[in-house]
Amino acid sequence: MKTNDPLDQKIDQLLASQPIQASADFTARTLARAEADAPRRKPGTLAPLIRFALPLAAAVTLAFSIFHAFGPKTAATMAQAHETPSTLTSFEIQELLILQEGLSGFAQVESDEINSGELLDTLETLYSI
Amino acid sequence: MPESNIAHDQDIDSRGMFAIAAGDRQAFTELLERWQSRLINFFYRSTGNQADAEDLAQETFIELYRAAPRYQARGTFSSFLFTLARRRMIDSYRKQARRPLEYLDPTELTIQQHAETSDQSREIEEAFHRALATLPDNQRDAILLLQQQGLSYEEIAAALDASLSAVKTWIHRARTHLRQELSEFA
After folding, report:
1. How many domains does one find in chain B?
2. In which domain, by residue range, is B43 found?
3. A76 in contact with chain B, both atoms CB, cutoff 8 A
4. Which of A124, A127, A122 is nearest to A54 (CA)?
5. Domain limits of chain A?
């Protein structure tokens, strides 16, 4: 702020001042921490596997459940079906779909950088079940 | 600092970030050396304690290092850096569940920084620190980013995630408050 008022000038001077110097070992300490942090940043070998395995597992589970609900039935299961009503309701199927949605969200969570937004969305979806 | 130099520095910093993302550790060292004093002094004006200021600056640099692969030179580097710095500060408030300025130890300040300065300078520096401590966070950050760090209003708005008019209001209020608190030194 450009002013002739001595108090304003003093305040400007105080605000602009940088009264302290970094400690002599500050750079070294920070580099060491960054160095220690670096291995964690490297993508893990499991990351690509997890990225594909989780949605695959979810899809298999879903397919298995649907097959059980609507697939061809053996004589025994048909006889049983006559006796007891189907145990998988449309509500449960809906739950399975939501579960699949939630699990597929995990595929977007990379091991080197966890995106908190995506993780939160995924957990929220799972929690709502 | 002339505007052309600031633009040049921005280019250096953005290039540095891309180099860090590509695995160039020397680029990180250079960026660290270029910004450490400014960042530590920014935190120091809020914490009143060199050790805390250095811890916060270190965490901000680590955050910057991690963010390098995602860095895009959309805004200026300084507004990006001070966005990270402000987040660190907010995190530290949360962790401590009280304002770090409560740790302010005027004796330490006096011994550490102003042993050779005159009584009056020491007095005004302490009064200034107290006045700064009583400012709301947004006002203090805004006026420090303007006066101490030389950011433009637009950069401050980006760093503080606020509108331009809010930033101008905060700075005006901060200055009025500081004038009131330091009026006895007029």
Report:
1. 1
2. 3-185
3. no
4. A122
5. 44-127
> For position A68, what pLDDT does the model report?
77
B36 vs A: CB within 8 A: yes
Element (H, E) at B169: helix B164-181
| Digit-coded pLDDT (tens) for B84-132 | 999 998 888 777 755 545 444 544 554 555 455 567 778 888 899 999 9
Enumerate residues 6+ apart whose C-beta is below 8 A from B73. Answer: B14, B17
B55 near A CB under 8 A? no
List the single residue in A10, A17, A34 with the smallest CB-CB distance to B62.
A34
A74: left (phi over 0), alpha (psi -120 to 50) or beta: beta
Q: How far is the C-alpha of B45 from the C-alpha of B32, rounded, in Å? A: 19
Q: How far apart are CA B155 and CA A97, in angstroms?
A: 45
Give me the DSSP letters along A49-61. HHHHHHHHHHHHH
- ipTM for this prediction: 0.75
Instruction: Check which CATH number belongs to the domain holding B159 and give it.
Output: 1.10.10.10
